[in-house]
Each structure stands twice: as structure tokens, then as C-alpha cells.
Amino acid sequence: MTSSSAARERLADARLYLCTDARSGRGDLAAFADAALAGGVDVIQLRDKGIEAREELAALAVLADACRRHGRLLAVNDRADVAYAAGADVLHLGQGDLPVPAARALLGDEVLIGRSCHAEQEVAAAAEQPGADYFCTGPVWPTPTKPGRPAPGLDLVRYAAGLGTDRPWFAIGGIDLGNVGEVLAAGARRIVVVRAVTEAADPYAAARALAAAVRGAG
Ligand SMILES: Cc1ncc(COP(=O)(O)OP(=O)(O)O)c(N)n1
Ligand SMILES: Cc1nc(C(=O)O)sc1CCOP(=O)(O)O
Ligand SMILES: [Mg+2]
Question: For ligand 1, which residues put their CB under 6 angstroms from it?
């Protein structure tokens, strides 16, 4: 695990966050992660909803090695116990997951905690929530990766940008190289993607192009 002050500095500088399941890379998760991180992914989260904890820890060990080699952050989705056991840098919590104070009480100050937001009140709360290190707004567009979740769209991105908060925040949901310009024009400076990299024929090139687009926006 990266020290918490170094991890918070890396988070502040992060622009491209990737969620992947354990099957990316067609059986070679390490090669996939290396490619994505070399391309410019700053944070990599294991998001694999069906997986058992033992398998999840094995995949996290692979991602942790890759993150260590590239000096990037490793994130766990949903589960504080798994984040602790894996020595992860980040735990990501949705609105239906553990409340931030409960996760903070379990993990102490070492692990960064992020929060998903889908409405203005949730964004306003996450921007002020003690113990939350970052938040996400989405989905920007409806996405098969999160079926059935209504998309608040670019309006929520504009709302978050309008808060002028110092807390890092990311836009998520349906973002790819073709539409990232709209997300940036709406005021986001950080993005989260799944399919744009996991389903790319060349994950290195996909990450590189997205990272260049987001970093180019300032
Ligand atoms: C970085 C990031 N942002 C948002 C999510 C979504 O979290 P949640 O709403 O809890 O949905 P699931 O991913 O758990 O299905 C995320 N995982 N990561
Ligand atoms: C995991 C997730 N959370 C969302 C949210 O709005 O909180 S949208 C989403 C899926 C994003 O996948 P893709 O980049 O493939 O569209
Ligand atoms: Mg969740």
C-alpha cells in the first residue's frame, strides 16, 4: 500500500480511473493491467460483482503488483474487509454500500474512500462528507455496464463543476474517446471508464488516447 499522504497526492493528480473485472486481458490480467497503466491509467479498481472473496483477493494481488510497478493506485469496490485484506489504497462505495463513516471506522485514515453520486443532493453531500476523499457523478450516458441505472447526464457534471469544490471528483458512465470532449466541456477534469479500455483491442492505446484527452483539458 502507498502511504496515505502519497496516495492522496496521487489522487489529486489522477485524471483517468479504470474499473476492470478479473477476466480482462483474456486470461492475462497482469498484461492487461500493465498495458492500461503504461497507457496512463492513474487508478485501477477491481469491480467484479460475482466473484468470491478468495478469487477477488487473488486478482487484487495481480493488480497490486502492477500498480506498484507503475506507481499507481489500487482500488477495491464495495467491501471494506477486502480492501483491508488486499492492502488497497482506495475503497469505492456506492450509495447502497457501507456509509463512509462506517468504512472509515473500520479502515482508519490510511485508505482513501470514494463515493458514487447520481443526483445533485448526493453530490453536494459527498463534496462535504468528512472522510470522503473523492466522489463520482454518473452515469453521464446510459451504459450496459450498469444496466437499469438512470443517467443524470451532463447536467450532473455541470452541477459538480459549479460547486467549485477542492475535493477530487470524476465523471463516469458511457465515456469513450468519441464523447470525452463533451464531458470535459461540461467541466469534468477526471473520468472513470470501464468498456472504453476493457473492450479495446489495444488497451494501451485506448488508455493513452483517453489520458491525453483528459490531461490536455488542463
Ligand atoms: C470509481 C467508481 N465510480 C462509481 C462506481 C459505482 O459504484 P456503485 O454505485 O456502488 O455501483 P457498483 O460499481 O458497485 O455496481 C464504481 N464502482 N467505481
Ligand atoms: C460502474 C458504474 N458506475 C456508474 C455510476 O454512475 O456510478 S456508471 C458505471 C459503469 C461505467 O461503465 P462504462 O464506462 O463501460 O460505461
Ligand atoms: Mg458498489
Answer: 17, 19, 45, 47, 77-78, 92, 94, 97, 114, 116, 136, 172, 192
